[in-house]
Specification:
By secondary structure, this protein is mostly helical. It has a domain at 57-165: Substrate Binding Domain Of Dnak, Chain:A, Domain 2 (Up-down Bundle), CATH 1.20.1270.360. The chain has helices at 2-39, 60-85, 92-114, 119-138, 145-162. Helix 1 (2-39) runs antiparallel to helix 2 (60-85), helix 2 packs antiparallel against helix 3 (92-114) and helix 2 (60-85) runs antiparallel to helix 5 (145-162). The longest helix has 38 residues, at 2-39. The termini are far apart.
Length: 165
């Protein structure tokens, strides 16, 4: 039975990595294709490109905090899966909450980088999701460094996202 769980955890990790790679590749391809299409027949001399600033995004702190949640959350999730594969189900709730937090923080990262119209609304939802994740991970912080780091990143995100209100 543990061998089957190890295989399932490895397959899940591989699927996650492949899916993330496919999404990233599609985004790069889409951006490159869009830029090439826009460049064809487009007179860039009509713009004042020198007036644009290449500084950090308007919400760089939020982008960084959300990415920290994703980074720490991925490590926490992997740690929980590894323990589950050994028959330890004590982190089953942690897995569910971290798995819910990851895509939402990823979406906040994207909207913050774009200074999107609905950023504040999504950030409010993400604050609640991160609060749930933080509360669960805190339960395990004394025994699992990955859970402690995830809880701390969620707390930092909540603080940073609270600045939007």
């Amino acid at each position: 039975m543990p061998d089957q769980l190890d295989a399932a955890a490895t397959a899940m990790s591989r699927r996650s990595a492949l899916a993330m790679g496919a999404v990233a590749g599609a985004a790069v391809l889409s951006a490159a294709t869009g830029a090439a299409a826009q460049g064809a027949g487009h007179d860039h001399g009509a713009h004042a490109h020198g007036d644009q600033q290449a500084g950090p995004a308007a919400h760089q702190g939020l982008v960084d905090a959300a990415l920290a949640c994703v980074n720490k959350g991925e490590v926490c999730l992997d740690h929980c899966i590894a323990l589950m594969s050994k028959g330890d189900t004590s982190l089953k709730d942690c897995i569910r909450l971290v798995a819910a937090m990851l895509p939402v923080c990823g979406a906040v990262t994207r909207l913050a980088a774009l200074d999107a119209k609905r950023l504040k609304e999504l950030a409010k939802v993400c604050i609640d999701i991160c609060a749930d994740c933080e509360a669960e991970c805190k339960k395990h912080k004394d025994h699992h460094a990955a859970c402690k780091a995830c809880a701390e990143s969620c707390a930092a995100f909540i603080k940073e996202a609270g600045k939007l209100a």
